[in-house]
Design goal:
This is Sugar phosphate isomerase/epimerase. This protein has 385 residues and is of the alpha/beta class. Helix 1 links the parallel strand 2 and strand 3. It is globular.
Amino acid sequence: MRLRHPDGSTVHLGYCTNVHPAEDLPGIVAQFDTYAVPVRERLGVPVLGLGLWLAAPVAAGLAADRAAVHRLRAELTARGLEVVTLNGFPYEAFQAPVVKHAVYHPDWSAPERLRYTLDLAEVLAQLLPEDARRGSISTLPLAWRTPWDAGTRQRCRTALGALAGGLAALERRSGRTVRVAFEPEPGCVIESTTQAADLLGTVDTERLGVCLDLAHLACAWEEPRDALRRLDAAGVPVVKVQVSAALESTDPRADAEVLRGYVEPRFLHQTRARHGLATDDLDEALSTPDGGPWRVHYHVPLHAEPIPPLRATTGVLSEALTELVGGPAARCDHLDVETYTWGVLPPARRPSTPDELAGGIAAELAYARELLTTLGLTHTVEATR
């Protein structure tokens, strides 16, 4: 959906479709009818934005077939849906047996990652609404932290130069601006805004910047105001924001039994204490004597409390949005709700039908919209159809 900031600009709020991924074009369109249209109707808005996820083979096929992209755009328009941002973090869907680290491969030292991202940019330039200022693509923060050596770093730097050049060429050819946003994440080469400032401060910041995932920001125990000042000082723009909340325990030893209910085999749930503890998964953290408090990289629904006594880091989310869009000018105009863990939540919190999932997504978006309206944004902007 579109919101009007007091500065007169349009702020796009949507949700990321990796919560219900499909691996081919017919499957993607079917998901529009199963989830996105019901979400839009529940919210009562004429147009709903999607942070679309396209697997690498789908992106490559679309990039080579303009007619197919035009058909996809027509399918979106017919349903009151639009796309200004893509999620380019997962390269392909998780396959069984699940290897949790697979989502970080190929990384930015591999040529496949560059090809995939440029394919996404080609597709997005054609999907963008005519009146959209620009598009954005979120991607992984270069690589998992190991192995990371001088050669890997140089290959990544070379790839980022080629990426910026490809985006510039696309803009000259299409007249559309697409920016790529690197998403700091626990366990990766870029985990914090300090690392983002260090590794991205010398790239082409007209086209490259960060995707600030607010659950990741919380897990890094970063204060939103300080984090944004750090990025500003390095000249690194916030291209996109993932509106998300992490799981928090103030006393993990006392909460251990409840926390075990969030251990699951599909995704990594990196766990960070305010001081000291840093593990790559929640079960590993639970085997340590650390007393916390902990924050766990587990995206939880924005509108619903986790199983007590656990909490969600919605306080960090609120503070960050205040800094980003609560001032006289919007510092980011692409906001994406990204709770991809609905399918692995503990049974008491997990939706059992597509209709329940659509209702949960709609409730999250309503929560985010309400928070943004308290910051002065108004829901008065309609898309050009």
